[in-house]
Amino acid sequence: MDILTPLLSPVGKALYLDSATMQKTRGSVAKVRVQIDITKERPQHVWMGFSEKDPSLGKWQIIEFEDVPFYCLYCKHQGHIMGECPLKERDDEIKKRKEGETNRKIQEKQQNHNPRSNQQQEDDQGKSQPNRNNKEKGPAEEDTTHKEELKLKRKTKTNKRSRTKV
């Protein structure tokens, strides 16, 4: 117990050894009952130094935990882990719902700030641009075509006059 207690100090407080470890009948494995804090992360290995003079001599020994209860760091209850926590799932759903509502409210505010809807803006853009496929013309287009026709008539009159003079 005197040797194992300092080795296991990073893990927790050593309480007692199992009978095989006490009687030294099993030399490859030591089973120790250790009091641990389940709210903290457990180390996966400990350093076993073979010489106090040379700290580089030694090896990392893997720790195997047996019968450690599941503990949820989110709700602080035993019996499940954080990935399976029903409170966390519920809180995540509520958070998503609230985010969706705030996004919707922001979009509504933007639409209320601009009183004309996107559909109205698209309709207005379609009206301002002439539709070349349609034979109907807007008032501005009718004026330009009428002016062009008058210019053509004047040119033909001057051409006829010039022909008669020749």
UniProtKB/TrEMBL annotation:
Biased composition (Basic residues): 152-166
Entry protein name: CCHC-type domain-containing protein
Database matches in InterPro entries: At4g02000-like, Znf_CCHC_sf
Signal peptide (UniProt feature, chain positions): none
Source organism of this protein record: Solanum pinnatisectum (tansyleaf nightshade)
Biased composition (Basic and acidic residues): 86-111, 133-151
UniProt-annotated stretches for the region Disordered: 84-166
PANTHER family in the cross-refs: ENDONUCLEASE_EXONUCLEASE_PHOSPHATASE, GLYCINE-RICH CELL WALL STRUCTURAL PROTEIN 1.8-LIKE
